[in-house]
């Protein structure tokens, strides 16, 4: 089944404890993105990647890191999480840039709580 | 449940009626627009897209209209069904240095009354 998977789905952690949220897609997609979703703010793009070793900042990259060492994986790293990073996180992928009409497929989401 | 969209605009329609969800976008340089549907507890799901060189595009029971003059986008759902109840987001795409940026609207919650 074609899908985007994220792990973990739920995570409660403490301020400053490094964590990684994994994202993997099995569709051979070139493009991958991370978003956070907060009430009343919709989804905001954190980072995106057009291919292996090519990443760029979205609108809210502060406090996050990403890497794209393999085409299928795009982990999101929080080196020192803070309470304002409590949010619902989504990973997404597509064959090519959305301006080429390649729809984005979203993962199921990761609910992160930082205390 | 999810706390998505606590302060969202809402639209309530009767089953079988047509729904119109509106969206204003900000950047006149955006050249590609998408509508997504998000059901409770799930990630957004692609519905339909439109390029800036088009005014209208139709899919199965859905139509997207684009008015570039006033930077307005709308999603029309024909014969709305209970399964259409969800939060709907418009999104605009802009090319960036590494690929693309996607900017989402705040969303509209659609309630379908049986």
| Oligomeric status | heterodimer
Largest interface: A-B, 34 and 34 residues
Q: What string gives the helices and strands of chain B in order? A: EEEEEEEEEE
Helix content of chain A: under 10%
- How much of the polypeptide of chain B forms β-strand, as a percent range? over 45%
Helix content of chain B: under 10%
What fraction of residues of chain A sit in β-strands?
over 45%
Alpha plus pi helix count of chain B: 0
User: What is the terminal-to-terminal distance of chain B?
Assistant: 22 Å
Task: Count helical runs of chain A.
Answer: 0
- Integer average pLDDT of chain B: 87
Provide a quick synopsis of the model.
The complex is a heterodimer of chains A (115) and B (114). Chain A is mainly beta and 115 residues long.
Q: Care to describe what's here?
A:
The complex is a heterodimer of chains A (about 120) and B (about 110). Chain A contains no helices and 11 strands. Chain A has strands at about 5, 10-15, 20-25, 30-40, 40-50, 55, 65, 75-80, 85-95, 105, 110-115. In chain A, the strands form 2 sheets. In chain A, strands 2, 4, 5, 6, 9, 10 and 11 form a 7-stranded mixed sheet that branches. In chain A, strands 1-3-8-7 form a 4-stranded antiparallel sheet, with no helix packed on it. The radius of gyration of chain A is 13 Å and the shape is globular. The termini of chain A are far apart. The mean pLDDT of chain A is about 90. With about 110 residues, chain B is mainly beta. In chain B, about 0% of the residues lie in helices and about 55% in strands. In chain B, the strands form 2 sheets. In chain B, strands 1, 3, 4, 8, 9 and 10 form a 6-stranded mixed sheet that branches. In chain B, strands 2-7-6-5 form a 4-stranded antiparallel sheet, with no helix packed on it. In chain B, a hairpin with a 4-residue loop joins β8 (about 85-95) and β9. The model of chain B is unreliable at about 1-5 (pLDDT under 50). The interface of A and B includes residues 4, 39 and 101 of A.
